[in-house]
Design a protein that fits this description.
This protein has 74 residues and is α+β, with helices and mostly antiparallel strands. The protein has helices at 19-25, 49-64, 66-73, and strands at 6-9, 12-15, 33-38, 41-46. The longest helix is centred in the C-terminal third of the chain and has 16 residues, at 49-64. This is AbrB/MazE/SpoVT family DNA-binding domain-containing protein.
Length: 74
């Protein structure tokens, strides 16, 4: 695990990622990240437009079929 320090960037606060992490994620300045909540914290991964599209479809299906999914979960 790598400890990262929060840094003031103008009126915002950001995290500077070490070169090794950027390399492992195959990211460079200007790229987008995907942040998702996970048990015990958050996961950061390279942004994947196709994955985001699939997740939006899944969210739509879950919204539209909320009652059915609740019944199946019992």
């Amino acid at each position: 695990m790598t400890a990262l320090k929060l840094t003031r960037i103008g009126n915002s606060v950001g995290v500077v990622l070490p070169k090794e992490i950027l390399s492992n994620l195959r990211l460079e300045a200007g790229d987008s990240l995907h942040l998702s909540e996970a048990p015990g914290g958050y996961l950061i991964s390279a942004y994947d437009a196709e994955f985001e599209r699939q997740m939006e479809v899944a969210r739509k299906v879950m919204r539209e079929n909320r009652d059915v999914l609740r019944q199946l979960a019992k």
